[in-house]
Amino acid sequence: RAKELGGRRVEVFAAHMHADVVRRLELAADLQRALLAEQFALEYQPVVDLATSRVTAVEALVRWWRGGTFAPPRQFLGAAEDTGLIVPLGEWVLGQACRDVAAWRASSWDIGLSLNLSSRQITAPRFVETVEAALSESGLPPSALTLEVIEEMLVEDAEEIIERLSRLRELGVKLAIDDFGTGYASLALLRRLQVDIIKIDPSFVAGLGRDDALTMLTRTIVGVGHDLGLVVVAEGIECPEQLELLREMGCTRGQGYLVARPMAARGVDTLMPTNLSPLQNTA
Ligand code: C2E
Ligand code: MG
Ligand code: MG
Ligand code: MG
């Protein structure tokens, strides 16, 4: 009897697994088709100088135009990573974003580009060469490109990732730790990789002024970051109180819905200093 029951349970479990596998395979096939049909798009979220509100860079965020709406990355990045499709998708993101930002820079706008990477992209064959080619084909100077990685990518079995990112850094590309404070990267690792930028995770910013521990931690990260000579970017700024506290802490860069939402390339055009009215321009 017990054996019978156990068997049933295995069956139910297997059926559930089966549906899950089918869903993932369908998603993978959809992704493959979408890549061929050019159904991906980029949105750009401005990163601003918190003192002057000047846009210093844009972060490229990939979108999938699917069923009449833009799907956010969390709905498809996992499948893209598992299937390896993140590699061609990431190459498309890299090429498109470099061309867009190079065009904005051609109208004498000193703006940088920040790109998110998955470990699978970095360890793919010819990753360094692919980035070099995107830079030279678009004319974007290496110093205008920041590559964002998360702490997890640098702690375990990360020798190859660190080596490849270091080669790009030697060319002048900047490195950023995204979602900083949520993982296990040590300060020693930040120095070893010669990171240029840390982006404070939104979970810290959300607690500003409401949670003493998070407020204190944010202040500490800003202080230590500056002591190490890093640029500190606060992510997920949604309300004026957070912005005020960050300014008071000496945090110089920020990103978030309060400042600007991710937008299509056309939207970024309107932020170009030459397209702003003289009044806006003095901000
Ligand atoms: P991330 O790099 O940490 O990007 C910031 C995310 O926070 C974006 O979500 C952005 O839309 C959102 N955000 C910005 N300001 C605010 C705010 O004030 N409040 C809140 N609640 N959210 C805000 P998104 O676009 O859904 O991207 C999610 C993640 O997907 C990114 O997190 C990044 O890790 C990944 N990702 C996006 N594009 C790419 C890509 O081209 N390649 C790779 N490998 N990963 C990407
Ligand atoms: Mg990011
Ligand atoms: Mg982040
Ligand atoms: Mg993230």
UniProtKB/TrEMBL annotation:
Regions annotated as coiled coil: none
Highest taxon in the source lineage: Bacteria
Domain EAL: start-end pairs: 24-276
Span of the signal peptide: none
Name of the protein this chain belongs to: Bifunctional diguanylate cyclase/phosphodiesterase
Span of the entire protein shown here: 596 to 878 of 878
